[in-house]
Write a structure and sequence with these properties.
Length: 213
C-alpha cells in the first residue's frame, strides 16, 4: 500500500534560499545557455516564485488546467520525489543498483513528467522576457528536448566509464528523420536536472495559490 507523504503548502524560506544557492553555482550556464544574468542568477528560484505568485488567477488556471492531473497531485509527487532524493543523499553507502534506479527516476521526473506537466505550457504562458519563460523554453528545447525524447523512448545508455550518458534522438520533429547519437556529461546533466527541479519547486505552490487546482 502506498504511504502518503505530507506535501507542504510552500517551500520554506530557507529551502528557497538553498535552491537559489545551488542554482547560483551554475551561473555561467544560466547566463550563456538560458539567458539569466546579473542578480537574478543568484536568486533564480526566488525570482520564479515571485513571477508566478503575482500572475492573475486566470493565467494560473490556464497553466494548471492544461493537463488533467490536479496541481495538488503533482505537488504530492514532487514532494515524494524530493523525499527519495533526500534519502539517497543522507545514506552513508548506496548500492549501485539503487543509484541506477535514481538515475531513471530523476530523469523521468525532471524531463518527461515535468516537461509535459509544466514546462511546455510555462514556456508559452509565463510573462514574456521573464526568468520563468526563459527557463521553461530552455527545458523544452534542444539539447534537453532531444534528451527527453531519447529517455522517454529508451534510447539511452551509460558511457563505459559512467561519466555521462549516451543517447539517440532526432534533432527535429520529423518522424522520418534518422536518429543521431549524442552524449551528455554528468556535470551538464546535473545542471539540467537542478534547473528542472528548481523551477518546479518554485512554481507549483504559487501557481496553486488562488487557482482552486
Amino acid at each position: 500500500m502506498r504511504k502518503e507523504i505530507e506535501a507542504p503548502a510552500v517551500f520554506a524560506v530557507n529551502q528557497m534560499r538553498h535552491l537559489d544557492a545551488q542554482l547560483a553555482d551554475f551561473r555561467i550556464q544560466l547566463k550563456t545557455k538560458v539567458g539569466i544574468e546579473g542578480d537574478i542568477a543568484d536568486k533564480l528560484a526566488t525570482t520564479v516564485a515571485a513571477e508566478l505568485r503575482f500572475l492573475p488567477v486566470e493565467a494560473k488556471s490556464e497553466i494548471l488546467q492544461a493537463t488533467p492531473v490536479a496541481a495538488t497531485a503533482r505537488w504530492s509527487e514532487l514532494t515524494a520525489f524530493q523525499a527519495f532524493m533526500d534519502q539517497i543523499a543522507a545514506a552513508r553507502k548506496v548500492h549501485p543498483a539503487v543509484v541506477r534506479a535514481q538515475v531513471v527516476y530523476q530523469n523521468y521526473v525532471c524531463f518527461v513528467y515535468l516537461g509535459e506537466a509544466l514546462f511546455r505550457i510555462l514556456a508559452k504562458s509565463a510573462p514574456p522576457g521573464s526568468a520563468s519563460r526563459k527557463c521553461a523554453r530552455f527545458l523544452t528545447d534542444n539539447p534537453v528536448r532531444s534528451f527527453r525524447n531519447a529517455f522517454a523512448h529508451g534510447n539511452w545508455r551509460y558511457r563505459d566509464d559512467f561519466t555521462g550518458l549516451i543517447f539517440w534522438a532526432r534533432k527535429g520533429s520529423d518522424p522520418s528523420e534518422q536518429l543521431e547519437q549524442f552524449e551528455v556529461e554528468q556535470q551538464e546533466l546535473s545542471f539540467w536536472q537542478l534547473l528542472a527541479r528548481g523551477v518546479a519547486y518554485a512554481a507549483y505552490p504559487h501557481l496553486r495559490a488562488g487557482a482552486d487546482c
